[in-house]
Amino acid sequence: MAGPSGKKEKVDKAGPSGGGKKKKDVKKETGLGLSVKKDENFGEWYSEVCKHEMIEYYDISGCYILRPWSMAIWEIMQTFFDAEIKKMKVKNCYFPLFVSPGVLEKEKDHIEGFAPEVAWVTKSGKSDLEVPIAIRPTSETVMYPYYSKWIRGHRDLPLKLNQWCNVVRWEFSNPTPFIRSREFLWQEGHTAFATKEEADEEVLQILELYRRIYEEYLAVPVVKGMKSENEKFAGGLYTTSVEAFIPNTGRGVQGATSHCLGQNFAKMFEIRYEDEEGKREMVWQNSWAYSTRTIGVMIMTHGDDKGLILPPKVASVQVVVIPVPYKDANTQGIFDACTATVSALSEAGIRAEEDLRDNYSPGWKYSNWEMKGVPLRIEIGPRDLENDQVRTVRRDNGVKEDIPRGSLVEHVKELLEKIQQNMYEVARQKREACVQEIRTWDEFISALNQKKLILAPWCDEEEVERDVKARTKGETGAAKTLCSPFEQPELPEGTLCFASGKPAKKWTYWGRSY
Ligand code: 87F
């Protein structure tokens, strides 16, 4: 229930529903509040939360409108990541959206499994195109013919390019805003090196940036690790990823991937360079991406029964200032104090906004901004004006505090940092509570049924992973490996694989996933 919280007062006096109505009716008329709880119907809850005002549904299934409220989050992450990769000497570029069928099929092996998801343009106006044109699902085949052209000698290396773009994958399994959509935004980095060592190093540097996006910006804990042979990008040598976990559904979610492609694509696209001795060598390549899926993971992790909760670092409005005028109070004085508060915060680089709308009551505004997830609310009423203070209300834990206007900026800065920290810490604890170390098949099945994030000793054989998938297939999807964490717990001599009974080679996270 997202009823008005905070100080006692009459609600909806000036609200859109007029006076004297019951809360329930008000909710119906204003669209305030969520109709389902996160724990009761997660899917419905998620879709409702997204609709306030992250996403608008579109009349093509699997396609969504990103409204300013979510686009702003994307842009903040983009600003961070773009600056970081530029420090690594990665340059931005833009390749076309369309792929000619020739190059797309050149790279048969990896495209084979993906082919059903490729969307094609077959007409212009009413006439058929002579040759249909594919829409990029990813840009290896678009870019690499030009890498072959541009790379000649060792001085052309490393070549490090990135593009910010959209891609289309015509998925058929249930679309979910941000998490699985047919068109999405991402960055895709494609780099080429003379040596495997350089490529290996970059894979991990990029993965660390992905960890930072999740943990430092979105306050979502992730595990860094290696994908299994079954789950890696088939066209590459190895795949690393950051993996998040959604406790409510008990599903893992691949947060972002950083691949070492080895020399597979170099062979196919003939990307060679002449080394110092004049020998022709193949390049080593990487590719890496994160997408708007990040936003979905953040929403799922932090949202509650009142709606979204945005981590301060990515919130486009970090602080909302709401006047609480009372009948006989100095309304103009309160409004002026709100404006002055926003100015002071803005000058200090804090993203603050006031909500001076006179057709909504303070209570309605509280609920509305809570629903939108603004991390901190400031209320200013007659008593605050009198005492030269403001009241702060945290979105993450509801804690209220009166702070003197004299130390407003320092206080708010500190609060925003605390909120960011606390959101991460709460999310980490919730995830930790889901992690279950198991050793046997029975323990595995029982943990899976309890929606756990399973850490299991595994023999690392592809056949065994396929077998686990087959044996766990059901309505809610099969279990598979999420990743083998780089941080491995100790694996005592003689530990056996939970699924095959063979000697275990490593600890691996397993679970159902998005
Ligand atoms: C769908 C259709 C066609 C994923 C696809 O992860 C091709 C593909 O190649 C496809 N879905 N992939 C794998 C993408 C690999 C790789 N590309 C660059 C990344 C990072 C960015």
Automatic annotation (TrEMBL):
<dbReference type="Pfam" id="PF03129">
    <property type="entry name" value="HGTP_anticodon"/>
</dbReference>
<dbReference type="InterPro" id="IPR004154">
    <property type="entry name" value="Anticodon-bd"/>
</dbReference>
<dbReference type="Pfam" id="PF09180">
    <property type="entry name" value="ProRS-C_1"/>
</dbReference>
<dbReference type="InterPro" id="IPR006195">
    <property type="entry name" value="aa-tRNA-synth_II"/>
</dbReference>
<dbReference type="InterPro" id="IPR004499">
    <property type="entry name" value="Pro-tRNA-ligase_IIa_arc-type"/>
</dbReference>
<dbReference type="InterPro" id="IPR036621">
    <property type="entry name" value="Anticodon-bd_dom_sf"/>
</dbReference>
<dbReference type="InterPro" id="IPR016061">
    <property type="entry name" value="Pro-tRNA_ligase_II_C"/>
</dbReference>
<dbReference type="InterPro" id="IPR045864">
    <property type="entry name" value="aa-tRNA-synth_II/BPL/LPL"/>
</dbReference>
<dbReference type="InterPro" id="IPR002316">
    <property type="entry name" value="Pro-tRNA-ligase_IIa"/>
</dbReference>
<dbReference type="InterPro" id="IPR017449">
    <property type="entry name" value="Pro-tRNA_synth_II"/>
</dbReference>
<dbReference type="GO" id="GO:0004827">
    <property type="term" value="F:proline-tRNA ligase activity"/>
</dbReference>
<feature type="compositionally biased region" description="Basic and acidic residues">
    <location>
        <begin position="1"/>
        <end position="13"/>
    </location>
</feature>
<keyword id="KW-0648">Protein biosynthesis</keyword>
<dbReference type="GO" id="GO:0006433">
    <property type="term" value="P:prolyl-tRNA aminoacylation"/>
</dbReference>
<protein>
    <recommendedName>
        <fullName>proline--tRNA ligase</fullName>
        <ecNumber>6.1.1.15</ecNumber>
    </recommendedName>
</protein>
<keyword id="KW-0547">Nucleotide-binding</keyword>
<dbReference type="Pfam" id="PF00587">
    <property type="entry name" value="tRNA-synt_2b"/>
</dbReference>
<dbReference type="GO" id="GO:0005737">
    <property type="term" value="C:cytoplasm"/>
</dbReference>
<dbReference type="GO" id="GO:0005524">
    <property type="term" value="F:ATP binding"/>
</dbReference>
<keyword id="KW-0436">Ligase</keyword>
<feature type="domain" description="Aminoacyl-transfer RNA synthetases class-II family profile">
    <location>
        <begin position="96"/>
        <end position="311"/>
    </location>
</feature>
<dbReference type="GO" id="GO:0017101">
    <property type="term" value="C:aminoacyl-tRNA synthetase multienzyme complex"/>
</dbReference>
<dbReference type="InterPro" id="IPR033721">
    <property type="entry name" value="ProRS_core_arch_euk"/>
</dbReference>
<dbReference type="InterPro" id="IPR002314">
    <property type="entry name" value="aa-tRNA-synt_IIb"/>
</dbReference>
<keyword id="KW-0067">ATP-binding</keyword>
<feature type="region of interest" description="Disordered">
    <location>
        <begin position="1"/>
        <end position="27"/>
    </location>
</feature>
<keyword id="KW-0030">Aminoacyl-tRNA synthetase</keyword>
